[in-house]
């Protein structure tokens, strides 16, 4: 009779959910815009914007501010060599490790036909919030969703909040993956989690499942969203 053993290391990859902090609407918008800047590719434009981010953080609760300040300072103070090193780290983390995807629908839909439908729903949500995408990024790109949350007002703000809440498990899995890598972007995702509602039991269970198995894979294209059928291999390196 074969004994089934627990998966080695599974518990070490699951992080305890963070308790949200109390923020006003203006503070939440500021935190989400700052996180959007810091989670985007650290190019010259990000370096030029980082001092503005630093100044804006002063009005945020300490738990959020202290998680955003280090990377904002690192980008603002980076010389060309340091910026190139940060860029290389960014690519190695977010572009080459699929468990660190910044695309929210990937965690639930993976490389399956369902992801194309999920992306269409994101576009529809942006339009419902009164926004049209003008970037080359997919609509579920976390910095773009955070920017929507920072800029939308009224019903649009509710749409942005609903998008983040609906994909909370993906954000939590991203946080766990970044923490495992001791990535400088871990604290930024933690700051985002602090601005969201508490993680309920059902979401925690989905996070555990995703950490163990990874997103589903069918290896089909995303029909119009730029992904090809050639993206093989395990989505959970």
Automatic annotation (TrEMBL):
Looking at the keywords, is Coiled coil present? Answer: no
Checking InterPro entries in the record gives: DMSO/NO3_reduct_chaperone (IPR020945), NO3_reductase_chaperone_NarJ (IPR003765), TorD-like_sf (IPR036411)
One short Pfam name that applies is Nitrate_red_del
Q: Which NCBIfam families match?
A: narJ
* Record-given protein name: Nitrate reductase molybdenum cofactor assembly chaperone
> A single GO molecular function, which one?
unfolded protein binding
What are the alphabetically sorted keywords of the record?
Nitrate assimilation
Q: Which domain of life is it from?
A: Bacteria
Q: Which organism is it from?
A: Xylanimonas cellulosilytica (strain DSM 15894 / JCM 12276 / CECT 5975 / KCTC 9989 / LMG 20990 / NBRC 107835 / XIL07)
Quick one: a GO biological-process term for this protein? nitrate assimilation
Output the Gene3D superfamilies linked to this UniProt entry: TorD-like (1.10.3480.10)
């Amino acid at each position: 009779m074969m004994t089934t053993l627990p998966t080695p290391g599974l518990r070490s990859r699951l992080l305890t959910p963070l308790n949200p902090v109390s923020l006003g609407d203006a503070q939440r918008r500021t935190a989400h815009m700052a996180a959007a800047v810091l989670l985007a590719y650290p190019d010259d434009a990000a370096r030029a914007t980082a001092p503005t981010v630093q100044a804006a953080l002063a009005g945020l609760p300490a738990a959020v501010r202290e998680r955003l300040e280090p990377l904002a300072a690192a980008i603002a103070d980076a010389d060309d060599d340091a910026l190139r090193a940060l860029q290389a780290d960014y690519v190695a983390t977010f572009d080459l490790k699929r468990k660190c995807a910044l695309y929210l629908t990937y965690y639930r839909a993976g490389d399956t036909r369902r992801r194309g439908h999920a992306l269409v729903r994101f576009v529809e949500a942006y339009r419902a919030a009164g926004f049209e995408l003008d970037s080359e990024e997919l609509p579920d790109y976390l910095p773009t969703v955070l920017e929507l949350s920072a800029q939308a007002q009224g019903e649009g703000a509710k749409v942005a909040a609903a998008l983040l809440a609906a994909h909370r498990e993906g954000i939590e899995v991203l946080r766990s993956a970044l923490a495992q890598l001791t990535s400088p972007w871990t604290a930024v995702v933690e700051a985002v989690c602090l601005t969201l509602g508490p993680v309920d039991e059902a979401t925690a269970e989905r996070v555990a499942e995703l950490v163990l198995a990874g997103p589903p894979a069918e290896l089909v294209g995303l029909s119009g969203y730029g992904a090809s059928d050639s993206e093989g291999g395990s989505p959970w390196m």
